Every structure is written in C-alpha cells, then in structure tokens.
Amino acid sequence: MNPQELGFTPQRPVGWLAPLLLLSTGLRTLLAVLFGAYLDKRELQNALDGDWFDHSQTADGELWFDYVADLGDGFNATYSVAYLLAQPSLEVDGAALPRGRLLVMGGDQVYPLASGDGYESRMKGPYRAALPEPPTSSTQPTLFALPGNHDWYDGLTAFIRLFARRRDGHIGGWRTEQRRSYFAVKLPANWWLFAIDEQFGAYIDDPQLGYFEEAARHVGPDDRVILMTPSPKWVKSVDNPEQYDAIDYFIRKTLDPTGASTRVLVSGDLHHYARYSSADRELITCGGGGAYLLGTQQLPPELIVPQPDTLTRNRSISKPYAFQSSYPDAAGSKRMAWGVFRRVPTRNPGFVTMLGLIHVLTMLAMTGAAAGNAGIVQRLFSIPLAAMLVLILAGSVAFAQPPKADKPKHARHWIAGLLHAFAHIALAAGGTWLWLQLPFHDWMWPGPLVVAAVVYGPVIGFVATQVTALYLLIASTVDVNLNELYAGQGIEDAKSFLRMHIAADGTLTIHPIGIDKICRKWTPDPGGAPDASWLHPRDPLVPHRIEAPIKVR
Predict the structure, then answer these.
(1) CA angle centred on 262, ends 256 and 263, rounded to 5°
(2) Which helix (H) or strand (E) holds 142?
(3) Using the 8-state DSSP alphabet, how is residue 43 labeled?
(4) Looking at residue 400, what is its pLDDT?
(5) Nearest to 74, CA basis, from 129, 145, 127, 123
(6) In 3-state terms, the chain is what percent helix, strand and coil (to 5)?
(7) 284, 275 in Cβ contact below 8 A?
(8) What is the CB-side half-sphere exposure of residue 41 using CA atoms within 13 A?
(9) DSSP 8-state symbol, 514
(10) How far apart are alpha carbons 105 and 90 in whole angstroms?
(11) 113 contacts 104 by C-beta, under 8 angstroms
C-alpha cells in the first residue's frame, strides 16, 4: 500500500548521529531547559476538564490493559509493536492473552521532535493502520498517553492537540478520553492508575497536584496504585539523587495520606526492559515500543530508593530494590554493542561525511603549517590549524556530555572527551603524514583540494568513524556515551511492551512481552474486515515472555 492509500508516509528510523539532527535536537533541548518554565502548558491545563476516569466496571470484574512507551520512530519497529497490540489475542508461550481494553502510552510518542506531521507519520498513522476501526466483536479500547521529553520539545502543543483536544477523539479504533497531559484512572478490584507529568524533573505544577488530590479523595486504604512516570528516575537517581525527589514527593503528599499502597512504578524513556523489586513494590522500565534499543549492561545489581544522598529533608525511608530481570540481558547487550563498527557508518552517512570534512580541513591546515617557511611555533599555532584543533577538542568534549562540576563522576566525561579528541588529532596527524608522502600535495591548486575532497575525504571519514565507534565502545564501560553507543547503531529488534491483567480477586498479573525480531516486510490486506490490520507481517512476529508473569497482590 502506498502513502496515498495508507494516509501517511512510513518513515525510516531516525539517524541519531546525523549532524543537523544532533544540532537541532541539542538546540531544542537547550531551549526546553532554559525556557520550559515560561512555556509550560501544564499551568494552563487548569482550564480544561479535571475529571478522573472510571474503568472499574466490567462484566466479569476483570480487566486486561497494555503499556507501551517510546514508540514513534521507524515504521517497521513501531508498526510491529502496534500490530501485536491490536490483535484480538496473542499466543505467548502457549497462553492466550486477550487484547487490552486500555492502551496506555508511557511517553515519547514521536521522534525526534514533536510536530503534527511527526505524530501523523510516526505514531498515529501506524496505530490507525494496525486497528483502523473499533472492534466489532468486543468493547472499543481506550487510549491514554503520557508525554515524554520528545513530546515536550514544542511545549506540548502537538501532544494536547492529538490526545486531549476532543471528547470524541480517536486514533484508529482506539478512543481518547484524557483532557490533560496527566490522568487518573480507576480500575477494577480497588486498583488505580495515576500518570504524572513531571517532565525534566523540575516540579509537579499546582494544577496537576490539585487534579490528583481531587482524584485521591476517592482512593481508600484498601486500594492499590500503579504510578506511571515519564522516566525511570529510580535508576537515574543513582548518579543524580535529586532525580527521584518529585516522584517521592507525589507519593508522600498525595498517595500515602489515602492509606493506599503504591505497588508498581512503571516508566519508559530508557529503551529496554528492566525490573527491580522489593517486598512491597515493583519498579519497571519498559521503553521498547519502537525506538532504538538501549543496552542493559550498566544496570546496577541493586537500587536504593530514594537515594540517601538526596538533599530532600523529608524524603521517604530508603529501601533496597533487587535487580530481577532485563531484556536484552547484559550478555546480549554487550554482543550487540560490538555492532557499532558496522552499524554507525551504514546508519549515519551524514556523520561519516561530517567527520570526513573535518579531517580534510584539519589535514589541509596541518599541511599548510608543515610546508610553510615560518618557525615551528608559528606553524603549530597558525590560525586555521588552531581553529580546527579547537573545533575537534570542543566537539569531542561536548559529545561526551560532561555534567556540572558538582555532580559525582563528572571528571570521567571530560577525560573521555579529551581522549576522544586526542585520538582524532592523532589520526589527522597520521593522515597528514601520509598525504605528504603522496604526489597530490605538489599539484597545482586546486588539484590538491579536489583529490582531498574526492579521495582522501571518504577514506578518512570512514576511518574516523571507526575511531569514534571504538571510543563509544570503550567509553560505555565507564557509563559515558552509553546512549550514543546504541543510538548510533539504531538497533530496531528486541522490542517490548507489557500486557497486564487484573483478576476478579484483585491480583494484578504483569506479562512482560518481548519481540526478538521485528518484521521488515509487510503484506497489504485491502479486503479485510473494517477492524482488521491493513498490513500483515510476511514473516510471523513471535512474541514471548521476557520473564515469568509477575504477580502483584
């Protein structure tokens, strides 16, 4: 089916190391951090409906519902997950798991930046193609969405327009009910779902606190809560203890006074599955809805939540949470990491071109300094060469993303960035020496420039990319640029989502579902039923349990 038939254009995966994307995303992130408080639409949402939602009444007292996050990337991965979520039932390791009556999206419904066109082609279109119309043989499912950081880059404008603008809104066969970027849903058997929008970890705004305080009036001591957050701050607080403060505040001030127990915390943002648990709470990260895979080898064997080092004076009592499972596992993640030498050049041709251009200019500057008649000091500090060396140093250090000096372990980012820069400077020096051994540099101008651009540039660009790949592999062992190691590869396989079931007796069963290989070739079905998926996988998608079902009572 072509885009005219589908109503959207299937998109390729985002090339996360593309130079213009790196620049634009970096600028958007900077603007969101600097001016987010002034453009924060959460404060304005107080004028919208403040109702919570009741999905507790079912014919049999039970409820199936799904959780997916980080989904709006390349079509094949996003649609593979959407297709499985849309089917009436999934056969998983011999068990039939019915489709969820609720579909909850945990954040980053579009990449790389929020826009109407981005949502249409990367999220809404694929999900509409997976479930075009409400099911004819069952209740129409409802969709709720929590914004992630990428949804926030336009100040939530496109997110609110898509998910919260209309009472009769829908995305394909899923109807939308929410009126704000956060929501509370009453579930069967004394369960509640609270989804808080505390993006960028700054604070939870007063209108939002008021909304949840009103919803909490209906929560009692016998109730249990699933708390959704945009990011797994319980993991991120290991390096930045204050990251968890807003979540801890919400639990202490809004949920704990009701007497209810917060039994599950779930989030996306990190593009893998991981679970930590204590005797009374599960901490689950599940960000495998379609975006590039992120490795799990750096996950600690235990978390202390909240971190004792947080400056919050009235924090909750710190408790240990033991690591239970991850997908992929650490060994599989390490194996995938070695693909960086192959995948980074093939997935990011613009990055190769950028490095080739930088090295060509550096080589020409070094050649000019070496061939001149000036003294050695003047040659080394000639303006063009100095400018290129400063560019390499600054770019490499910025790429390592050094945090503030008051953050723990900040020095490793500086050291890694400088070592990466010195490696490229050494490569440039070696390339200059080789260039001077060849006859091209003695040709009449602009002959040397043409040969440098046509021959030297592509070769040195590929070699420089391999240097960066080696840097990413080594730096990741000290938890520097781990995200870039995998983002640069754009691994589409190893996707995940949660299918959950509340039984009539109140037991919550969480089924973590993994997909080892996504589908990349699809067969159109234009004559199918109105609620049937428009495209079917040519090779069967095989979902499996990541780990045994998790029982929460």
Answers:
(1) 155
(2) strand 142-145
(3) G
(4) 87
(5) 123
(6) 40, 20, 40
(7) yes
(8) 19
(9) E
(10) 19
(11) no
Q: What is the per-residue pLDDT across 110-157, written as a single tens digit (0 to 9) for each?
A: 988 888 888 989 999 999 999 999 998 888 999 999 998 888 877 788
pLDDT band of residue 444 (cuts 50, 70, 90) is confident
Q: Are strands 319-327 and 302-305 parallel, antiparallel or unpaired?
A: antiparallel
Cβ atoms < 10 Å from Cβ of 501: 17
Helix (H) or strand (E) holding 20: helix 19-35
Helices (H), 280-329: none
Give burial (CB, 10 Å; 0-12/13-18/19+) of 167. exposed
Closest CA to 153 of 71, 65, 39: 39
Cα(100)–Cα(540) distance, integer angstroms:
21
Return the SS3 of 29: helix
Pairing of β 191-195 and β 224-229: parallel
SS3 for 45?
A: helix
**Burial letters for 373-394: b for 16+ Cβ neighbours within 10 Å, e otherwise?**
eeeeeebeebeebeebbeebbe
Q: How far is CA 486 from CA 268, 467, 474, in A?
A: 16, 16, 13
18-27 pLDDT tens trace: 887 767 666 6
> For residues 396 and 383, which has the higher predicted lDDT (pLDDT)?
396
* Phi-psi region at 409: left, alpha or beta (left = phi > 0; alpha = psi -120 to 50): left
Closest CA to 461 of 420, 416, 427, 426: 427
Closest-CA residue to 179 (of 144, 127, 155, 228) = 144
Q: Whole-model pTM above 0.70?
A: yes
The identity of residue 82, as a single letter, is A
Strands (DSSP E) along 154-247, which ranges?
170-171, 174-176, 183-187, 191-195, 224-229
